[in-house]
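forwarding from the other thread:

> can someone predict this with LRBWVUCK?

sure thing
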Amino acid sequence: MTLQRPPVNSLNLDLLKEMSKSLDEIAKNKSKAMILTSASPKVFSAGLDIMEMYKPDLKRVEEFWTTLQEVWFKLFGSNFITAAAINGHAPAGGCLLAMSCEYRVMTGGNFSIGLNETALGIVAPNWFMDTMTNTIPVREAEYALTTARMFNVEEALKVGLIDEVATDKDDAIAKCKGFIGKFDRIPALARSITKLKMRQAAIKRLQDGRREDLNEFLQFVQNPKIQKSLEMYIQSLKKKA
Ligand SMILES: CCCC/C=C\CC(=O)SCCNC(=O)CCNC(=O)[C@H](O)C(C)(C)COP(=O)(O)OP(=O)(O)OC[C@H]1O[C@@H](n2cnc3c(N)ncnc32)[C@H](O)[C@@H]1OP(=O)(O)O
């Protein structure tokens, strides 16, 4: 699955809906595995589209968040094997997508990956945190989340946020295929049940608290202080250009 929403694959409602549909198709056609990557040469995904959260239409922003939750359920809780070929920056929601896969290969270069929410004055939802603690040790996750740490490729490898470094996108995809090939001699049902049991607690936590999580997000986007910070953040991104 190749993300292709220039310039930075920010996750807006339309892209999330497309991802949700594609994940359904992959599950339905009984594919063995999926590799998630990006068509951009330098950005895997810039995370959530900030414009979806800035001065939002309430009905749309509710659908936006619900669709993000659905994409996470379908990716994090998939039966099929998932790997991410991270060929560029992966901040925030981009990191969430990568961590929701079972294996991550990142191309070397001046790229960064991590959950930077606290730097924007945002508390990452529990399921973002759960996804991170499913990937790196709890102590490292707490430190990274509280400090909004963006890891460079070497740091990400050292902490286990990524599993391998690749020379380029083709190499990243080849390495993801190498991971998928490890399951050739493992019975598929035993593999998928094991994966889902390992992920069950995090999945159940969001299933049980899905409405509450949505309400928290809706309150968050309607808070004038948050709107002001989003406005300043958008300006800072634009000034950079
Ligand atoms: C309770 C709520 C919890 C959920 C909260 C947060 C989860 C999130 O995912 S919030 C999004 C966080 N993402 C970021 O902070 C990343 C911001 N972007 C960047 O750091 C850089 O764009 C990036 C390193 C990804 C790529 O750098 P460049 O290749 O140099 O691109 P530009 O910075 O020049 O960006 C091009 C263009 O895209 C716009 N942009 C970038 N990111 C976003 C985004 N997340 N949403 C919307 N738009 C984005 C940027 O403003 C530029 O726009 P123009 O100036 O109009 O071209």
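The chain has one domain: 2-240. thats all i got for now
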